[in-house]
Amino acid sequence: MFATARLSAASRGLRRRGPGPLSALPALLPALLIAAPILWVGASLFATSPNLGHLADTVLARYGANTLLLALGTTLGVTALGVPAAWLVTMCRFPGRRVFEWALVLPLAIPAYVLAYVYTDFLQHSGPVQSALREVFDLGPRDYWFPEIRSLPGAILIFSFVLYPYVYLLARSAFLAQSACAIEVSRTLGSSPVDSFWRVSLPLARPAIAAGVALALMETLADFGTVAHFGVQTFTTGIDRAWRSLGDRALAGQLSAMLLLLALTVLVLERRSRGAARVHHTTNRYQSLPGYRLRGARAGLATLACLIPVFVGFLLPAGLLLYLSLAFGHDLFGARSLTLMRNSVTLAGLTAVLAVSLALAMAYAARLTASPLARAANRVASMGYAVPGSIIAVGVLVPLASLDNAVDGVMRSTFGVSTGLLLTGSIIALTYAYLVRFMAVALGSVEAGLEKVTPSMDGAARSLGANFLGTLTRVHVPMLSGTLLTAGLIVFVDVVKELPATLIMRPFNFDTLAVQAYRLASDERLTEASTASLVIVLVGLGPVILLSRSIMSSRPGSGRRVGPETPPLLAAAPDPTGPVERPAGP
Questions:
Q1: How far is CA 96 from the centre of its chain?
Q2: Given 3-state DSSP classes, what are the helix, strand and coil percentages for the chain, each rounded to the nearest 5?
Q3: Contact predicate 177/582, CB 8 Å
Q4: CB 361 within 8 A of CB 534
């Protein structure tokens, strides 16, 4: 009886010390700060610009048509490359399959604009391919036709070979999670392996494939370096021209709002395409997936189908970058290169630390309160990943410039001192833009990690006298160390590769590796741009290796297992319309 009384008193004490309404503030306040630039861009749709009418009469239709064609072509390209490769390495047995399982992810390490620079130098009129053709066949400059890489179809090819791993990863996770019983039933009913793919595997994996395509489209809409280098006029190039050439902030905001609506439309259509379909397992036991042994010509075609994306998307461009950097590039350890590396590492490291810290506070607050408001705030804070960097730059700069001007006016009138621009054009503003853009990456990873920590751990720590902060620092952080490191690493690499926001918002005389590569490529100094591009690729290999390791261990060969996990980069994908349905595991 006395023990029961002591337990009742302890439970009453725990309830008295439970999370109150203020505990949701760590989730609400960062979410409001991060969502503010996006909300401002949406509101700028109703602003007026003297140049909008002229733009509508001249190039606005071209912006929209090129953007839509680019999105449609990329959708077809990433689907055609990612889905067959995922099914082949999951369901078939052929030479090189185990290597292709992880090698097919490698193109994610190369930004699209870097791939564009490499293939422009490789395939242009003075490049090695056309020069060799003229020499071998004794052709003159006008004696033959060669496809132009710097075009809309060329941009579609670049995006397809860079972004197909998003579809490959999610499609492979879906194929791994499928029940072997469903496939065996289709085979007993007379279906061939190809028929089983079309009638069973593909419909079950459609939600995951649609989510991967949506991720690829978000990256396509957000790109600036590739389309600018290829001379393809899209909304992102129009935003940059309105901001830097015309100096029209209202016009840049309106174009940004149009592109934001297009990005959100893609997300809504991806969600609606799934309808009310749900995929669930009816058993918690898993058998080994059937492995179709391919021989002869079929094995050769399967190997070729997996080799082409890896070769075109990673092996060839990485080899060309290494050769160009060693032969014609800048000194990798020269003063200029080291300065660029320092600037990139400083920005990326600062953003990664802040993003992971804020994500931990926001996810932990939502866990404590179990409040729908806190969860909704976290979803709002994740929307920046679906917004191009140029839009976020406009949404950050205009309000900060107004704030700087207001502070300067008050200081002038009160103290006769001009403060100038305190935030605009500073590292603070640029870091803020990065946080808006990549908070979803850190938040998604941290939330996924916290879900694996059983709530009984919190109760045990509280019963031993630890408060909420002590539970977080002494229990959750040590258990989440791997997750936090992974989230920080992915944010770090994303910041190093980010180009549009950096171009618009960087401080004066402050360049990064991405800006250096873009500047040299814009001046047609492609060989000199190879050094900065190579460093960006080497930095990007870190998280790609992590992703490769995660998919290699996603499903044991037989027996009972836990369902395959989505890699952190893909788990962080924002979906403001709701979660992606994945086949339910045990």
A1: 28
A2: 75, 0, 25
A3: yes
A4: no
Helix (H, G, I), strand (E, B) or coil at 280: strand
Distance CA 325, CA 319 (A): 10
Q: How far is CA 502 from CA 252, 333, 356, 582, in A?
A: 16, 23, 21, 35
CA angle, 572 then 382 then 218, to 5°: 70
Domain ranges of the chain: 21-287+327-571
Contacts of 168 (CB under 8 A, 6+ apart): 81, 82, 83, 85, 86, 104, 105, 212
CATH number of 21-287+327-571: 1.10.3720.10
Which residues are 293's β-sheet partners? 93
The tokens describing 146, both together, are 């060669």
Entry field: residues in the chain: 586
565: left (phi over 0), alpha (psi -120 to 50) or beta: beta
Single out the residue of 580, 577, 42, 570 nearest to residue 267, CA to CA.
577
* Vertex 348: Cα angle to 344 and 354 (nearest 5): 150
Q: CA 109 to CA 162: how far, in whole Å?
A: 9
Tell me how far CA of residue 388 lies from CA of 255, 262, 351, 381, 394, in angstroms. Answer: 12, 11, 17, 15, 10
pLDDT values of the chain reduced to their tens digit, one per residue, 586 residues = 444 444 344 444 444 444 555 556 666 777 788 888 877 777 777 777 788 788 888 888 999 999 999 999 999 999 999 999 998 998 888 898 889 988 998 998 899 999 999 999 899 888 899 999 998 888 887 888 888 999 999 999 999 999 999 899 888 877 776 655 556 555 565 566 666 666 667 777 787 888 788 888 888 888 888 999 999 999 888 888 887 777 777 788 788 778 878 777 776 776 666 555 555 444 444 445 556 788 889 899 999 999 999 999 999 999 999 998 888 877 777 788 888 889 999 999 999 999 999 888 888 888 777 777 777 777 777 777 767 787 788 888 878 888 888 888 888 888 888 777 778 878 888 999 999 988 888 887 788 777 777 777 767 767 776 676 767 777 777 877 777 887 888 888 889 988 888 888 888 888 899 999 988 888 888 888 888 898 898 888 877 777 666 656 554 443 334 444 455 555 555 443 344 443 333 3
Report residue 92: phi and psi, to 5°: -120, 160
Q: Could you tell me if 186 and 196 are in contact, meaning their C-beta atoms sit under 8 angstroms apart? A: yes
